[in-house]
Amino acid sequence: MATPRELALFSAKISEQAERYQDMVNEMRVIASMAGEQELSVEERNLLSVGYKNLVGARRASWRILQSVEQSEVAKGNEKRVSLIQKYRGSVEKELDNVCGEILELLDTHLIPSASTCEASVFYLKMKADYHRYLSEFKVDSDRKEAAEKTLLAYNAAQEKALAELPSTNPIRLGLALNFSVFYYEVMNQPEKACNLAKQAFDEAISDLDTLGEDSYKDSALIMQLLRDNLTLWTSEMQDQEKAEPPKE
Question: What pLDDT shows up at residue 248?
């Protein structure tokens, strides 16, 4: 007879196939709350990540669209439309707050304390940093500063463990470097740090490419390509900015 955990896992998989991500998250929360009794398997933690990533991803996309439309209406001087959009954007921000707060509580209460391997620990710390980063994208003033500080703390904790114990080609370590560098570029406005972090991760992985196993080759290669794409884009943008700046006397 199937256990409640097995039934929840099966339901989560069905929900993913049906693209019912709120239902998927509801099932995975049940499993995550059991982490103290039995640590999540790789499959379970990946399903948890996919569910929340889709929930928050849809809202982040909505927020960006609303922000863009709002800026357009501000430029036109349409105050009533701007007010309406701001109210709508506020409701999306509230949803983002709730989703991020929910997964962050699960991570702090159940998942991070239950991690028994370096890979699991880095996975959860990276996830914690990611969701604080998502909060920092729309928060303002002191709230934004607080979210950014928490993001940096979690990324640094994950990075310290990853560099010490995971191979340079490990997809979780590479994914951490990718997201950490994006944080430096987009949130902290430190493009040089972003480029240095991404370049170091890419170069180290390239030099150890012959050690990469078949099971993780596809994931690692994809993240390495994203690191290289970001480096190309960021370097180009930095060069364009330097050209646009007036000569210093």
Answer: 43
